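Worked Example 4.2. Consider the chain below.
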Amino acid sequence: MRVAIVTGASSGIGQSAAIQLAKRGSGVILTYSNNQSGAMETVASIEKEGGAAVALPLDVGRSETFPAFRDSVVAALRETWHQDTFDSLVNNAGFAQMAMFEDTSEELFDTFMRVLLKGPFFLTQALLPLLADGGAIVNTTSNSALPSGLEPGYSGYASMKGGLMVLTRYMAKEFSNRGIRVNSVAPGSTRTRLADNAFERFPEVIPLLAAKTALGRVGEPDDIGMVIATLLSDEGRWITAQNIEVAGGYGL
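Applying the procedure from the previous section yields the following C-alpha cells:
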C-alpha cells in the first residue's frame, strides 16, 4: 500500500494534496500544528471516499521534536497499514508574513528560517530511513523566490523558499542512488489561510492579483494539490530536481 506524509494538511494546499493523493489510492499521514479541527476535516474527507488517513501533531519549527514524530509515524504505519515504510513526502507546512526589508526583525527572520528551511531539511533527514526506495518528495516553495513573483515585503520569506529550491536539487542529487525523486512546486497567489487568512481579511487584493495573472484569477488549493499528487505518482516518474511554478502565469 502506498502511503504519503503531508505536512501542514489541515487547510489549503496541504489539505488539497492529502485529499488528491488519497483519491489516487494512497494512504495519508497528515500533520497539523494549531488547527486540529481542520486536520480532522481532512481525515473525514479522505475516509468518506473510502481512503485511510491518520492526523499527527507537528511543529516543523521545532526540530528537537522530530525523533518523537518519527516514532509516531512508525506506529501509524504499523497500526493502520501494517508496514514499516512510506512512499512519498510533501514538505508543505509553513507560514507567510509580509515585512519590508528594513522592518524585518531578527526574530522573524529566524522563525522563517526554522519553519521554512531548517524544518524541511531536518524533518526529511529524520524520515529518510523510513522512505521506501523509489519513493518521491515534493517541497512547497513559492514564486516569490522567482523573478515572476518578486513583490516588495517578502525578502525574508522568499529567501528561505529560494533556499528550499536549492535544497530540492541537492536532495534529488543525493537521493537518486535510491531511486528517490525530489521536486518542488512554487505556487503563486493562492486562496489559502496563509498570512492569517489574508484573503478573507483583505478581499480587495484579489482583483489586483487576478489582474496580474495571465489566466485571470487567483489560484485555488486544488490547482496546486493536483500538481503535487501528479508529481508523486507514476506520471511524474521521469521528473526530478525540478521547481515547477504553478501560478497561472503570474506576472506574464
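The mean pLDDT is 95. The chain is about 45% helix and 15% strand. Compare this with Example 4.1 before moving on.
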